[in-house]
Fold:
Amino acid sequence: MKTTDVAVPLGEDYPEIREGVRRICADFPDAYWKDLDEREAYPTEWVKAMTAAGFLAALIPEEYGGAGLPLRAAGVILEECHNAGCYAAAAHAQMYTMGSVLRHGSAGQKAKYLPRIASGELRLQAFGVTEPTTGTDTTKLKTKAVRDGDHYVVTGQKVWTSRALHSDLMLLLARTTPLDQVVKKTDGLSVFLVDIRTSLGKGLEIRPLKAMINHHTTEVFFDGLRVPAENLVGGEGKGFRCILDGMNAERILVSHESIGDARWFIRTASRYANERIVFDRPIGQNQGIQFPIARAYAAMQGADMMLRKAAALFHAGLPCGEDANVAKLLASEAAWQAAEACMQTHGGYGYAREYHVERRWREARIAQIAPISTNLVLAYIGEHVLGMPRSY
Ligand SMILES: Cc1cc2nc3c(=O)[nH]c(=O)nc-3n(C[C@H](O)[C@H](O)[C@H](O)COP(=O)(O)OP(=O)(O)OC[C@H]3O[C@@H](n4cnc5c(N)ncnc54)[C@H](O)[C@@H]3O)c2cc1C
Structure:
């Protein structure tokens, strides 16, 4: 297929999916998320409801018990969650982490894990890549896995491994060949499926990491953890490619959450601007209130179009690195623009927890930092699209 043959749907595509997600999310109103935020608790009931409806298995092929839907449909699910005021990050990694197993797992691994992930029996929501000392410089990560008979012995530390305490499995990126012994720095990294349940206390320790948002993120310590060699995904030393392959899908999926956030903020801000009377008139009558919301709406619409394009190219199997990165940049910024407009529109009440704006404002900010920070997206565009020198 050629780029010129790709069609982009406009309007509310996947209406039945949207309606189904809205119905579930209606049972989990703002007060539910506020309560969880205050208790730093995990949305177990919401995740169960989304799993039971099959939404978290959207991308798992039908032969493994999933819905086998296109990436755009999965994105629509996440967008509607955020549009409804829910926080899909509690479970979204299940969609893109699973992709590494689907694309690079052996037939045995797929048969063993995918049906149980699809049914909700197993959660694969933890993705251990980032490390405290190396950050974005992934190929320098220090966690190592050394082959010992039919096992690998893992030693090292991860940080910001979200949902590890609410997941059965973790996808782990570790170095199997030391950096000074590889030709390319991206060689010698390997991906493993770690069974968290059987590993805890046997070389695996997970500590919650207090954060600005209720993201259930953790620090993970590996001290001689033995991982069966059969849990190696995609071949020894090929882990970086395995992770990289999923990046466009990941960017496209999380961008949908940002679009959902932007819709929630714009709707909430517009409503409040109409309702709040100051100086005997609705504050929305003032252009100083109206225009930032309108500007955020325009930014959201632009980002949404770009996102639809990226998803359509992805679905057609065409290169979409540029589009996925541009969509991610624009969507995360549109969400933040809308969050800021909503906060400012609410004045002091934006800070009142019962209005839910401050919580959602905190949550929306993360899209510019994780899973990839804005500078790295810009560096991709600068280097790979515009042909400028690599900055790192
Ligand atoms: C709530 C939360 C959840 C997360 N969940 C996960 C998870 O589940 N799994 C996981 O593996 N990681 C996770 N992360 C980590 C996240 O992916 C990283 O924080 C992010 O990629 C940035 O890495 P860093 O924090 O080490 O920043 P650093 O690499 O230290 O960078 C700091 C700043 O410098 C900028 N910078 C660095 N190098 C360059 C350069 N060459 N050019 C321009 N700017 C540069 C970065 O863009 C950033 O703004 C999470 C983080 C947070 C906050």
Observations:
- The CA atoms of residues 251 and 328 lie 6 Å apart.
- The chain has a mean pLDDT of 97.
- The first strand starts at residue 124 and ends at 128.
